[in-house]
């Protein structure tokens, strides 16, 4: 009997240990990705960051290595390797050998594929061609993307290979666009910009073999809401979105700066706007901090670039009135001096951004408005700036700037992602643009882009709208979007967000916004914060006294009227 009991205990214990190991294995199943790349500069640039955003939807375990510096240890624990041949290059033999020996999922993008003679033996490069149509190979007519004419790296496939996406131009030209044999994939273009990003985003689900249910999400963002916004239009739009049960985002600029008078307007100076924002926050809206003043130098709030010097096309390495002298590595006698110079520049930028973000978060929180995400004005900020922002916000909204060389090189991807260059921030990108009042076809274009992004299994339909346009165009946009396949509208409050600044901590939990504010710390940070509450108290007290006085007058008039009537009746009697 004792032996049977012991045997039963051993079996039970073994089962428990096995189940725990299976749970542990599931927890550890997130892909580990290595990206080996060839680039002109030898450094990570906008092309690699585009791939970073696409892959970051599936995992945040992504490491980049240049083709010339790959080491065997870089492959330890890796489940997926992407070789990105953004430029033609003769690869080192040791790099080829290490990647050919890799046993996991292997994807080649662009040039230099023929150098992987074993893994890419199913294809033969033939030169270049052009395409204007991309078709999903399963033959689903709904999965077709028409594009402007693009170049393609023409390849011929062996019989054992399969085509996932086919490219074509007219009836006479068909090419493999994304091909597969076993665990090996080839993408026949070196560009990952749209429209490639849309198609590749969807087919990455095949490369990563995802199985979870796919949900196509969307959001609407009300843009550039500052203290001089029209509170009546804000309330009209808020009521429309509430009635349609659509959660939304409000990109708030705490301070408006008049470019001519230099006068600054705060939300506390415009209680009607503040009341409208409070109402919106309590009825489906989520606050996104959209800079602090949304301007630099003498530009107008909403028009200026707060975190980028657009005049000199460079990060904020100087004050608005400073003389700007741009230096490059060739201006220094050695690398050490150049690195010291760059460190000083970045330290200036960090201090500038720190002050802006701290003040913005504190000010909004003091008003009872709790920002859950950040959006840089005009989507412009440096790579160093993303790192600074990540110290304050866990969520970033909009498109992203991909290089410090040119602010106009920016992009988004068709879904939510966590790229490594955002230093831990989750990116909820904008994908379909905005209602441009100068373009009579703006809404039509937005809907077309929405249809393209819905080709992605869990694509994101995300755009923005300026409330000053009023409600009519918004109603038209909503009517058109509601004709599309069902979209699950994103409520930031339902997602995990964390915002931290001095004396302020904001988190979200199951639809609730939790704010921890050190009021004493805020008072010591600026007297503006308690003065707002004193001003509010005095106004409420004044209105209370006015109301009480008015009530007393009304009661006195009623009493006097009744007394007069009694007196007249007594005289008549």
Quick summary:
By secondary structure, this protein is of the alpha/beta class. Helix content is 34%, strand content 24%.
Give a written overview of the molecule.
The chain is of the alpha/beta class and 573 residues long. It is built from twelve helices and 25 strands. Residues 5-14 and 16-27 have low confidence and may be disordered.
> What Rg is obtained from the alpha carbons, in whole angstroms?
30 Å
Mean pLDDT reading:
89
Low-confidence stretches: 5-14, 16-27
Number of alpha- plus pi-helical segments: 12
Mind describing the biggest β-sheet?
9 strands, mixed
Which structural class fits the helix and strand makeup? Answer: alpha/beta
Shape assignment: globular
* Alpha carbon gap, first and last residue: 112 Å
Give the strand order, joined by hyphens, for the main sheet.
2-1-3-4-9-8-7-5-6
Number of strands: 25
Topology:
Layout: H1 2-27, E1 33-38, H2 46-55, E2 62-66, E3 80-85, H3 93-100, E4 105-110, E5 123-136, E6 144-157, E7 162-169, E8 173-181, E9 184-187, H4 196-208, E10 217-225, H5 231-243, E11 248-252, E12 255-257, E13 264-266, H6 271-282, E14 285-289, H7 335-366, E15 371-374, H8 383-389, E16 395-397, E17 400-401, E18 410-411, E19 426-428, E20 433-434, H9 442-453, E21 460-465, H10 472-481, E22 488-489, E23 498-501, E24 504-509, E25 512-517, H11 519-525, H12 528-572
Parallel strand pairs: 1-2, 1-3, 3-4, 4-9, 10-11, 10-21, 10-22, 11-14, 14-15, 16-19, 20-21
Antiparallel strand pairs: 5-6, 5-7, 7-8, 8-9, 12-13, 17-18, 23-24, 24-25
Helix pairs in contact: 5-6, 7-8, 9-10
């Amino acid at each position: 009997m004792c032996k049977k009991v012991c045997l039963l205990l051993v079996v039970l214990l073994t089962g428990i240990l096995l189940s725990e190991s299976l749970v542990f294995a599931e927890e550890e199943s997130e892909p580990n990705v290595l990206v080996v790349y060839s680039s002109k500069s030898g450094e990570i640039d906008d092309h690699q960051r585009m791939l970073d955003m696409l892959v970051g939807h599936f995992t945040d375990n992504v490491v980049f290595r240049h083709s010339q510096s790959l080491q065997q240890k870089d492959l330890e624990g890796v489940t997926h390797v992407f070789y990105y041949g953004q430029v033609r290059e003769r690869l080192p033999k040791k790099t080829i050998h290490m990647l050919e020996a890799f046993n996991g999922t292997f994807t080649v993008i662009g040039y230099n594929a023929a150098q992987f003679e074993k893994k890419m033996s199913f294809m033969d490069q033939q030169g270049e061609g052009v395409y204007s149509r991309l078709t999903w190979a399963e033959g689903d007519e709904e999965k077709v993307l028409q594009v402007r004419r693009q170049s393609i790296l023409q390849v011929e496939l062996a019989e054992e290979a399969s085509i996932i996406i086919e490219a074509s131009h007219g009836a006479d030209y068909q090419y493999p666009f994304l091909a597969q044999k076993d665990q090996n994939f080839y993408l026949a273009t070196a560009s990952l910009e749209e429209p490639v990003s849309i198609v590749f985003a969807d087919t990455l689900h095949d490369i990563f073999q995802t199985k979870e249910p796919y949900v196509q999400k969307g959001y609407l963002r009300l843009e550039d809401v500052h203290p001089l916004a029209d509170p009546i239009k804000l309330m009209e739009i808020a009521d429309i979105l509430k009635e349609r049960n659509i959660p939304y985002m409000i990109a708030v600029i705490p301070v408006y700066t008049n470019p001519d008078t230099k006068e600054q307007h705060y939300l506390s100076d415009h209680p009607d706007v503040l009341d409208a924002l409070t109402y919106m926050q309590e009825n489906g809206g989520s606050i996104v901090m959209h800079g602090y003043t949304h301007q630099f130098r003498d530009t107008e709030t909403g028009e200026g670039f707060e975190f980028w010097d657009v005049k000199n096309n460079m990060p904020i390495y100087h004050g608005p009135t400073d003389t700007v002298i741009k230096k490059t590595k060739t201006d220094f006698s050695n690398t050490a001096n150049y690195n010291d110079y760059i460190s000083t520049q970045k330290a200036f930028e960090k201090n500038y951004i720190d002050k802006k973000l701290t003040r913005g978060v504190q000010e909004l929180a003091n008003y009872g408005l709790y920002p859950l995400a950040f959006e840089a004005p005009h989507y412009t900020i440096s790579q160093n700036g993303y790192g600074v922002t990540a110290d304050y916000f866990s969520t970033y909204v909009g498109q992203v700037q991909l290089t410090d060389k040119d602010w106009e090189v920016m992009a988004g991807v068709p879904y939510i992602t966590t790229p490594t260059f955002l230093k831990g921030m989750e990116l909820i990108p904008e994908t379909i643009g905005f209602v441009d009042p100068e373009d009579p076809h703006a809404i039509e274009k937005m809907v077309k882009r929405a249809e393209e992004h819905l080709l992605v299994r869990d694509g994101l339909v995300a755009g923005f709208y300026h409330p000053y346009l009023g409600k009519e165009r918004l109603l038209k946009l909503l009517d058109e979007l509601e004709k599309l396949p069902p979209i699950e509208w994103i409520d930031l409050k339902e997602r995990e967000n964390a915002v931290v600044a001095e004396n302020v901590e904001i988190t979200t939990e199951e639809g609730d916004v939790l704010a921890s504010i050190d009021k004493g710390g805020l008072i010591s940070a600026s007297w503006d914060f308690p003065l707002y509450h004193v001003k509010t108290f005095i106004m409420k007290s004044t209105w209370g006294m006015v109301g009480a006085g008015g009530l007393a007058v009304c009661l006195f008039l009623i009493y006097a009227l009744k007394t007069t009537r009694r007196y007249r009746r007594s005289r008549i009697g």
